[in-house]
Amino acid sequence: MRQNNNFSTAAPKIETTLVDYQDEIQRLKIQLSQKELENTRLQQEVARLQKRTSHFAPANLTLTNKAN
Questions:
Q1: Neighbouring residues of 57: CB distance < 8 A, sequence distance ≥ 6
Q2: 61: how many CB neighbours lie within 10 A of its CB?
Q3: Distance of alpha carbon 4 from alpha carbon 24, whole angstroms
Q4: Among 48, 26, 47, which residue's Cα sits nearest to residue 34?
């Protein structure tokens, strides 16, 4: 019988821990979504800047130091 008492007192802690883990998983999913949106925004900004600056020098141009 004593095991049943231990189980019944442990069950609320397990449920609380499970809820805590579920809350943390949800929080991390939201954070991941926000990071993915930020990543997409940054990729778009990089593409925009690359397009804007592409006329300055070809991508395959190698710059050399003439001072030597």
A1: 63
A2: 7
A3: 30
A4: 26
| Three-state secondary structure readout of the chain | CHHHHHHHHHHHHHHHHHHHHHHHHHHHHHHHHHHHHHHHHHHHHHHHHHHHHCCCCCCCCCCCCCCC
Question: Does pTM top 0.70 for this prediction?
Answer: no
Inter-residue long-range contacts of 59-67, CB under 8 Å, 24+ positions, other chains counted: none
The pLDDT value recorded for residue 1 is 44
Half-sphere exposure of 60 (CA within 13 A, CB side): 0
pLDDT exceeding 70 applies to what percent of the chain? 68
Domain boundaries defined on the chain? 1-54
* Identity of the residue numbered 15: E
Distance CA 32, CA 13 (A): 28
